[in-house]
Design a protein that fits this description.
The protein has 215 residues and is α/β, with parallel strands linked by helices. It has two domains: 142 residues, HAD superfamily/HAD-like (Rossmann fold, 3-Layer(aba) Sandwich), CATH 3.40.50; 60 residues, DNA polymerase, domain 1 (Orthogonal Bundle). The protein has ten helices and eight strands. It has a six-stranded parallel β-sheet with strand order 5-4-1-6-7-8, with helices on both faces. Helix 3 packs across helix 4. The protein starts with a strand and ends with a helix. InterPro entries: HAD-like_hydrolase_sf (IPR050155), HAD-like_sf (IPR036412), HAD-SF_hydro_IA (IPR006439), HAD_2 (IPR041492), HAD_sf (IPR023214), PGP-like_dom2 (IPR023198). This is HAD family hydrolase. GO terms for molecular function: phosphoglycolate phosphatase activity.
């Protein structure tokens, strides 16, 4: 096997969270008197945490309202985090294959930590070993801190740990952590953005990714 451990991004990689994110974004915008956003618009905003999401969603003159939108978003999302969210096809089976092979698996996400844990436990249970979400002492990706925390806990080195994600932020995160990166093409980020970020390994299905890891 190529690796002893795999760190996954969550949104757009393991789970399709877009519909629930859009609902929470539009709730927050409505609370602050702004118009609604489409799925494609919300897709283009996500990946760098809630604060950056609303910096992208709001017009320039409304930037002072970002904090209020973030608070409204988190309040709504915390109770509507798992309404429409589902695993991508083949993801549970991929995690089962990795578990059976003795490979450590975890999630490093820019989603706030409580939501990461709730979603991972609801959809994957014991198929994931550990989680690192956004928190007070956890810088957001592309900072490598979350990945390093997981590797330290597992006792795995950089050469034996793979990072897998769907976005340019994930490519940068892997680079900053000194890890090989597997870029999945079923998620939120267009392939052109992955290419521009320097992605070199692309996977169109969870099964293909599992085959690569286990080869």
């Amino acid at each position: 096997m190529r690796y002893r451990a795999v760190i996954f991004d969550l949104d757009g990689t393991l789970l399709d969270t877009l519909c629930d994110l859009r609902a929470a974004v539009n709730f927050a915008l409505a609370q602050e008197g702004f118009g609604q956003r489409t799925l494609d618009e919300v897709r283009s905003y996500v990946g760098s945490g809630a604060y950056v999401l609303f910096e992208r969603a709001l017009p320039g003159e409304a930037r002072p309202r970002v904090e209020a939108c973030v608070e409204a978003f988190k309040g709504y999302y915390s109770t509507h985090v798992n309404v429409y969210t589902r695993p991508y096809p083949g993801v549970p089976e991929m995690l089962e294959r990795l578990r059976a092979a003795g490979i450590r698996t975890g999630v490093c996400s820019n989603k706030f930590d409580a939501a990461v844990r709730l979603l991972c436990e609801a959809h994957f249970g014991a198929l994931l070993d550990d989680f690192a979400g956004e928190g007070v002492n956890m810088p957001k990706k592309p900072a490598p801190d979350g990945c390093r925390r997981l590797m330290e806990k597992w006792g795995t080195g950089r050469a034996e740990t793979l990072y897998a994600g769907d976005s340019d932020v994930d490519v940068q995160t892997a680079r900053n952590a000194g890890l090989d990166c597997a870029s999945v093409t079923w998620g939120f980020c267009p392939r052109t953005a992955l290419q521009a970020a320097g992605a070199t390994r692309y996977f169109a299905s969870a099964d293909a990714l599992a085959d690569y890891i286990l080869a």
